[in-house]
Amino acid sequence: MSVLWAKRIGAACLALFILLNLFLYASSRWNPDRIPGFGNWRVLSVLTGSMAPEIRAGDMVIVARYTEEVPQEGDIVTYWGEEQSRSLITHRVVKRLENGYLQTQGDANEEADGGWTHPDRLIGKVVFTVPYAAALQQLLKQPLVMVLLCAGFLAYLVGGQRRQKRNPATR
User: Fold this and answer.
1) Between these two residues, 164 and 78, which has the higher pLDDT value?
2) Rounded CA gap, 133 and 113, in Å?
3) Using CA atoms, how far apart are residues 109 and 49, in angstroms rounded to an integer?
4) Which of 128, 144, 145 is nearest to 136 (CA)?
5) DSSP string, 47-77
6) Any residues with CB less than 8 A from the CB of 14 and at least 6 apart, and which?
7) pLDDT at 171 over 80
8) What residues contact 36, with CB distance under 8 A and at least 6 apart?
């Protein structure tokens, strides 16, 4: 009986993972800023270790847009890199001017980022971190890993069918 529950839990986790990735892909297409998420929330993968140990490369972050409040010193924010760039940066606010401009710095960096970030380039505040989620997502995108997962799933299906044919009373 416990093997059956393990199979059901595994299938549910796999289905949830597939649905989550489909949602992230679709939402990145329908959002005007082309960032996956829903409403005022965005889901992003962290590619570098500039915010370690708080946020590591391979983590996934949930970013909430600022609506009423303004960024404060100490907040971890995500913003567009340069005006012509499509890169996003997630760093901590170390200073905020009265006009809304921000100075940021990665926790693992020795110096603050050069220049000031215009408030219009701000995406939002990091409110949640999912450790290793982006690394797992990137791993599953590798063709060899996908082939191995599909082969394992096929072997599981074939093996289950053979067991049922040999022992029909264990259904």
Assistant:
1) 78
2) 27
3) 9
4) 145
5) -S-TTTTTS-TT-EEEEE--SSS---TT-EE
6) none
7) no
8) 23, 24, 25, 27, 28, 42, 43, 44
